[in-house]
Amino acid sequence: MQYVSNNEDPILHRYPELLKKKVFCYSEFLSFEDVSPFVQFLQEMNVQDIISCYIMNGSQPLGIISFVRSRHDRAFTSRDKERMVFLSKYISNIFLMLKDRHTSDTLHAALKCLSDRELQISLLLIRGYTYQEIANRLYISVNTVKSHVKNIFSKLQVKNKAELGYILNPLLKW
Q1: Are residue 128 and residue 155 in the same domain, yes or no?
Q2: Is 16 found in the same domain as 95?
Q3: How far is CA 146 from each of CA 127, 131, 135, 153, rounded to the nearest angstrom?
Q4: Which residue, of 101, 136, 162, is where some domain finishes?
Q5: Which CATH number belongs to the domain containing residue 37 in this structure?
Q6: Could you give the angle at which helices 161-172 and 78-113 cross, rounded to 10 degrees?
Q7: Dihedral sign of CA atoms 153, 159, 165, 167 in order
């Protein structure tokens, strides 16, 4: 059996306009008489059709969910497509809610565990200030800044300024 070797979905690579559709069936645009490796793979797996929908983050696709029908099953119907549109919207909304909740919970935890001085230094750090600039601005030594940064990274379990910025970014909007 020959498998498709590249990581891209060969259908989307060949038909990029499918990104504009919410739901699609491969049988709508793909000829199963085609001799491409992907179609050969589908035929070897006894596939009649595939229905797919995107999981979206705004206008960016996060992933794709597909269901497969074998040659022994009935074909996909317009009702199946309606269900897939609902599924796409439902799962996309769950991802957005989880992302917002995770950001909110993480931010809340960060605010609880950092001292006022550590929070002050964190915000200056993610705004791009150097250790020396932070020290000058807060009238402390560079070594004190380094000590605070070490404590901040430890408390928030981050390894660098980028990860710190990811957690505290919502504060920059205030």
Answers
A1: yes
A2: yes
A3: 16, 7, 9, 11
A4: 101
A5: 3.30.450.40
A6: 100
A7: negative
Whether 107 is covered by a domain: the verdict is no
CA gyration radius, the chain: 25
Contact 153, 164 (CB under 8 A): yes
22 in the same domain as 95: yes
Name, in order, each residue with C-beta under 8 angstroms of 37's C-beta and a sequence gap of 6 or more: 2, 4, 10
- The C-alpha angle with vertex 64 and arms to 61 and 69, in degrees rounded to 5, equals 155
87 or 8, which is more confident: 87
Question: In the prediction, which pLDDT does 39 show?
Answer: 78
Residue with tokens 């550590």: 118
CA distance 57 to 92: 6
pLDDT for the residue numbered 117: 94
- pLDDT top residue among 43 and 139: 139
Segment 88-113 mean pLDDT:
70
